[in-house]
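Input for the complex:
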Amino acid sequence: MTPAGLDYLQPTSISEALEMVSLHEDATFLAGGHALLPDSILPQSHRRHTRPSTLIDLGRIAELRGIEVLEDAGSPHGGDSGGAGRLVRIGAMTTTAEIEYSPDIARTVPLLSKAATAISDPLIRNRATLGGSLAEADPHGDWPPVVLATDATMQLRSRDSERAVPAGDFFTRDGTGPGTGPTTLRPGELLTAVTVPAVDARTRSTYLKRMHPASGHAMLGVAVAVTVDADQACRDCRIAITGAGAVATRAVGAEAQLVGSRPTPAAIEGAAHAANDGIEFIGDAFGSAAYLADLVPIYVNRALSQLATPSTRR
Amino acid sequence: MLADYDDRMATVTVHSSTQSPHIIKRMLAEVLSFPEHRLRVVAPDVGGGFGSKLHLYPEEVLLTALAIRLRRAVRWTATRSEDFKATNHGRDHVQDVELCATADGIITGIKATLFANLGAYVSGMAAGVPTANCAFMLTGVYRIPNVHVDTLGVLTNTSRVDTYRGAGRPEATYLIERMVDQLARQLRIDPAEIRRRNFIPPDAFPYPVPTGAFVFDSGNYQHNLDTALGIVGYDQLRGEQAQLRRRGRYRGIGLATYTEFTGLGPGWANAQVGFSFGGWEYARVLVHPTGRVSVHVGSADHGQGHATSYAQIAADALGLRPEDIDIVEGDTARVEFGLGTFNSRSMPVGGSAVHECSQKVLAKARRIAAHALGAAVEDVQYEAAVFTASKPTGSSPRDGVTWEEVARLAHFVPDIPPGIEPGLDERVFYDPKGLAFPFGTYIAVVDVDPATGDITIDRFLAVDDCGPLINPMLARGQVHGGIAQGLGQALLEGARYDDAGCLVSGNWTTYAFPRAQHLPRLETAHTVTPSPFTPLGIKGIGEAGAIATPPAIVNAVLDALAPLGVTHLDMPLHPEQVLADSRQATTDSRPLGGTP
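Predicted:
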């Protein structure tokens, strides 16, 4: 039952990896393997029926790894994002555990630290990578809603080009990326890094996860980041939901309800009511689409209410 | 598993992950018409069986046949998905039940029809689970004079359904404990009080059940219940519950008081559940010339810790330390006879065999020691591994003789006492006098979130009575594991098939089993009521947790939702279902018997 006819390549640089993927038809990048191996490679793979013929392991590419705070970088996002224009650059092969324990991340984008602790168990966090999870775009993944809520940008490279795609455009329903969920990743293209704007004390954020009782993935996950101005009115609000549909999505209707007003219980209630707008719910045996539609407003409400409580700021 | 044919000896050795190597050996010999004495079955360190590894599997027959045919070793490893599909499933009952009682809550009769799925093929015990194991236990811990049970085995196109931790007693306990709570609610009597009014009283033991199937050996249910209520602070919990209800919080307190049978068993009891062999267990206690002891037992450890508990029993009986004793199990070439580990029988039956065999060895050692001391056997004292004569013999060359010396004398000295053979090596086939019935009280305290249907277990207490404990830590481990499995059944687990009959819960992302985050802190305690039927008074404890936990949890959730008028929920209690049933009950009608 050992996988037969599988080529395994170990590039040591991004350009070498991109060269390899252009030469091998039906090749797939291996970025930690916690989705790809059980789903497609190992004998008991059950989710996918097609299997790549070549694995390109990104584990030895040093330039894909690491966390860097870029002071006063020329932000591609433009304007003041609250963190004095600083950007945090996280290499795609950075592990969940490295994000979890990074003091730089805790200081600049605490939502990432918080979300990392909600992912699986320490053994998996030591191996699973940020980029792997995002390229996989599992509809029940934890990182997709978090990069949406933190307004992150995906840095993509292929042999001949380079582009920066905002998270909101990366997860698209009509995408044809290689993962379980649809992404804008093109054949031969590699996610090299994620850049995230740093936040300051005016932004509060949280990630509420409901674990699927069988898989342990997010049966539902709500990532919320709210930025208030000096008189406590909501200036910016990002609410992103995973687990409910085919792809993680922002609850723009709910966000619009909140922006410009103070996050009072009534305002939060109003936002929560609008949270289901635009979601095409997909359920399973442990929670039907109708049940998920019951849960989303409750989770959005609870997440926003947490932020309104001073003791749980940030 | 691995089947290996030895061409030179014309023997087959079968390594299989089983709870009953001797039974598998016998069945393989019969099915394949292969001489049983040239078959060897080895069960290595088996990491859990729970009844699903008790019966013969087609793969065991096929591999052994192939090894004989090919005259070489044949190996087979199941994938996880194959294991999900083809390993025996458990439970799967639909139960219709009526309970009769007087206005003051005295139960006078119970009538039930059980529809039990057997799957597409009949496994080793299959129909015996819902009939003998379940139907005969429906009256639980209560004195119910009238019982009528119809059991219908249903052949379907699912996987085989057979023994699974508790095997019939969980189904029976769930039925009666749900009904008793329902009765309490309709009569507005506290669930603890209604149990008190119906318990079989302590002076009624040994108690023949009304079906005539069993005689309950011993019990003191009231004391056990009171102990549990005291530990959990029952009256205070009820007070808090009333306060929380006024604030719109849904807290529930669920009780389950159970009994079950362990220690299969006397031959007649085995025949009742369809086994065509005696229920004895085999033990051999052999003392090496060094004084160290090997104990061979026919049970088959698969996680219970027999190497510890049997060593304690033998060490106590022989006046030695547990570390002086080695336990040998799970290999038919090393342990000549045996039945295996199931029905929580290892301690009550295997442990009794070890105890009696150790006593037999000690009796012989005492005779050898008496001879060496020049004393009469009845004058020999044995303490701290030294034999001494209680009165001076005058002719005695020495004051005392140690265990090690006796072991050496038994093997090497020509001057053996007249009338006995050399060696210290005894065997016992221990035939149980009756089944042992442990009992207990389980209490769950839960909070139900009315918005999501989520169930949080705030407290969980198990007070078991399995007679004297051999090893409290191992007993607690059994209870903890059983509770986890019971919680899984109550809240999470279930095999699911699609409309085409395909199993759709065939991997760990679609089958929910209890993990650490699903479990509350578990509180355990014991009362001790010895069994008159076993030499050490011990009863089995391997299955109690899986038996009493589901009704405790479901009763607690129903208690929590009583203000909404919810009177029935089916396991597993998935939050979505809890929410839907709560909404249905709220819109449907007023609660039965008025507002609680």
